[in-house]
Amino acid sequence: MFKNITEKTERSILCDFLICLFAIAFMAVFYYGWRALIVTAVSVLTCYVCDVTCVYFRKNKLILTDFSAVSTAIIFAMLMPASVPYPILIVSCIIMIIIGKQAFGGNENPVFSTVAVGYAFASLCWKEAILLFPTPVPMGQLDLSSSISGKLMHSFTYTIGKVSVPATSPLDLLLGRFLGPMGTTHIIVLLVCAVCLSGRRSISFLTFFTGLSTLLANAFFFPLSIRASRFSSVEYELISGASVFILIFIAADLKTAPKTKIGRAIYGIIIALLTIIFRGYANIETGMIFAILIANVLSDTTDKSPVFFKFLFKWLLRVIKLLSKFPVVIIGFVISVIRFISEKSKKTSSVKIVLVDKIAESKNSDGEISEGNSDDSETKMTKLFPDVSDTQENYNDKKEERTTNEE
């Protein structure tokens, strides 16, 4: 199956993956110390032993030099927080190999992404252990015991939905020094890996490109934060949600990606659109994992039924060629769309501010805000606008100003 997809051999692709994963694992060790190495080693040992055991009991040919489970284990470890308890990691790896890989025939007949199955299981069963992260410190050393007693916090992706502009500096964002899975925050290293793997045809470039382009386009036209600019929103989208890492090592994996070029392009768009829905409406930080599980089911469909998609692409090309004869119309249409989106975002922001002012100006019969009413107002604002951090500040400023005037 693998040779039908690409001229490269499975062993060659596996070597390319391992080289890139070693570079990412090195960065994880740099920020989280020896614990990151232990988490990776435990994951590799568990997955390899479980994979060999399953092959033995299925009475298949045992190949001790098959290190596909090692690649899977490192990818899974890089999606984990450095603070993940070892028992949770071991159980998740066992479920990942048995249900996600061996239950469907192992390497010969992959249906779902093995890593996606394992991560979905872990995040649903142990949400706090998987979605809370320690602070990355260069050359830092975390406690090597199973459970870390230090303070754990939500990821950078979580804070984007709660505050208007994240407090993390641009330099920290560039260097990957922010809260998140220990191998997914190093954006520079990940982009280099994407270029190398695409150039060596070890991943589906079309899936990676269409998926990432769809996510960035959505972030530009529909910013993630009200106060953030469009380009800042694109930057946040690029580094949040482990999107780049998951697109490279899971979504663009040639084992589960479609075989045709059109199928791969559509496959990436489907994953991106489902990710937008999961993250925007279901509030799932790593929604791309669940999007990939759904898209895996549609992988063969995009290959076996390409007639409709070919017709769609040809129709779009004809429309583009027709519109290219009228550049003024295209420019006017683009300007109109941008104006419509900007006016809509301004109206949304103004409506929120007006409502906050009304809540802040609510008084009791004596004309003063009582402590109970103040608490009610704060509760109302928190429920109405959980994603805007400055509403509470506006309310407090108005309250202090009103108290000063009365004095």
Number of strands: 0
Structure annotation, total helices:
20
Please outline the major beta sheet.
none
Radius of gyration: 24 Å
What does the overall shape look like? globular
- What is the CATH class name of the largest domain? Mainly Alpha
User: Helix- and strand-based class?
Assistant: mainly alpha
Number of domains: 2
Indicate the CATH architecture of the largest domain: Orthogonal Bundle
| Series of H and E elements | HHHHHHHHHHHHHHHHHHHH
Named CATH topology of the largest domain: Ammonium transporter fold
Distance between the termini: 80 Å
Mean pLDDT: 77
Uncertain parts: 1-7, 348-357, 363-392
Strand content: under 5%
Helix amount, in percent? Answer: 55-70%
Ordered list of secondary-structure elements with their pairings:
Blueprint: H1 2-5, H2 10-32, H3 34-57, H4 68-78, H5 86-100, H6 114-125, H7 127-131, H8 156-160, H9 170-175, H10 187-199, H11 205-221, H12 230-239, H13 243-251, H14 261-280, H15 287-297, H16 299-304, H17 306-324, H18 327-360, H19 371-384, H20 390-406
